[in-house]
Each structure stands twice: as C-alpha cells, then as structure tokens.
Design goal:
Blueprint: H1 6-15, H2 25-42, H3 46-63, H4 66-78, H5 84-93, E1 112-121, E2 128-136, E3 144-150, E4 156-162, H6 165-177, E5 182-185, H7 188-200, H8 213-223
Antiparallel strand pairs: 1-2, 1-5, 2-3, 3-4
Helix pairs in contact: 1-3, 2-3, 2-4, 3-4, 3-5, 4-5, 7-8
Length: 235
C-alpha cells in the first residue's frame, strides 16, 4: 500500500536477523516493540500506521529468513491486536526453520500471566507510577515488570520494561522508608483498564514512550482480563 517505504521494510527484514541470537522471549518482545515504536512514531496518522504495518507483514512473509519468521511470530504475539491474525498467517506460510534451529523461547512469546501490581506515589506533582509484574506461563519464570508513569490527565511520561524487578522494588521500599514515596498494592484489573485508556492515543505520548508502547499495550490488555494469544505458529 505504501511502495515508497519498501526500502524501510527491507531494512526491518535485515534487522530481524538479530532475533534468532537473542537469549529469551522477553528480549525478543522488547526488540519487537522497539521496531514497532519506530514505525508508529514516524507515521503521520493512524491510517498510515496500519498501512505500513500491513505492508511490513507482507514483506516479512516473503523474506524467507529465520529472523523474518520470528519477527512475524513476535508480531502475532505482542503486536497491535488488529495485526496479529495477519502476522500469524504470514508466519505459518513462511519457510520453517530447520529442526533445532529455532530458539527455544519462541513458544513463550506473548504468553505471560500478571502478578502483583504496585502504585508508587512520589508527590502531587510527580503523578502515579504503576509497576505491574508478569511471569511466563510455561514455568513461572522470566519475572519482569511494566513500569508506567502517568502525569496530569493520565498522560504517560515514561513507559519502560524492567528486567530486575527485585532491585526496582527494593529501591522503592527504601524510598518509602525515607518517606520519599508511598508504595501500595493495587487492583490489577483496574490498573489494566487505566493503562489501556492512557496508552490508546499515541499522539499524546512523549517520544520516549514509543519503544515500549506495543509491549505495554499487550501487558495492559492482559491485566484488564484479555486471554493471551496462542502462538499457533509454534505447532
């Protein structure tokens, strides 16, 4: 639909060569989210974003490389909800990686369960920081967190994925003991609904939020009660 961007799509195909060498599903999801963030930030409007993503899925499906297929599988797992079916179909049609050649983490993509959710309030001018814990459903491993700072009007000013959750929470508790903030558990479903609304409009986000935006939307939907996608391309 956007032939002028073919060189951009080919650059994504080349970049996807990094995916098979990544050590785990979380890093693959973070990588995928960063690519989507670049695409979304550059698009002038929502229609252009949808068209560019559809084109990218088509080009990845035709690439015939292990990295392109993994990119499609990651898109099918944590990409925008409306693009997941097309990405899954393209991944199923793509050439299979030789036996033993696909990373063992491929089946984990997008399949996580929410854990504890924390509300951290540092002061009336700093807004709320929501820290949402997740683990992969296969064996409960891969603890990580989505941390989102919401300012006035619930406008996100920071969206990050945290790999060392114990260190983050230890620092928060030290700050609480020093009376620098308040840390309290929060209802996951309520936080999920709040985050989904806050992250829906990309046009009001700070540029720093884009790299983790796709992954944050995926995790927020799970908090709100959506069932994680089944990655059928693994079967």
């Amino acid at each position: 639909m956007l032939p002028a961007l073919r060189e951009v799509y080919e650059a994504y195909v080349r970049a996807a060569g990094e995916l098979p060498g990544l050590p785990d599903a979380l890093r693959a999801e973070v990588w995928t989210s960063a690519q989507l963030g670049t695409l979304e930030a550059a698009a002038p409007n929502a229609a252009a974003r949808r068209a560019a993503l559809a084109d990218l899925i088509t080009v990845l499906g035709s690439a015939g490389t292990p990295g392109a297929r993994l990119f499609l599988r990651a898109l099918a797992a944590v990409g925008p909800a409306e693009a997941r079916p097309a990405a899954a179909r393209a991944a199923r049609r793509a050439p299979r990686t030789p036996e033993g050649g696909e990373p063992p983490w491929a089946r984990r993509l997008g399949r996580v369960a929410p854990g504890q959710v924390w509300l951290i309030q540092e002061g009336p001018l700093d807004g709320d920081r929501l820290v949402c814990e997740f683990r992969y459903t296969f064996d409960g491993s891969g603890l990580h967190a989505l941390a989102v700072r919401l300012g006035y009007g619930d406008v996100p000013s920071e969206v990050v994925v945290v790999g060392d959750v114990p260190a983050l929470m230890a620092a928060a508790r030290r700050a609480m003991q020093a009376e620098l903030c308040v840390v309290q558990p929060h209802d996951p479903a309520a936080v999920g609904a709040r985050l989904r609304a806050a992250l829906a409009d990309a046009d009001r986000l700070a540029p720093e939020c884009y790299p983790a935006l796709a992954l944050a939307r995926h995790r927020a939907a799970l908090l709100a009660g959506e069932t994680p996608p089944r990655n059928r391309t693994a079967e």
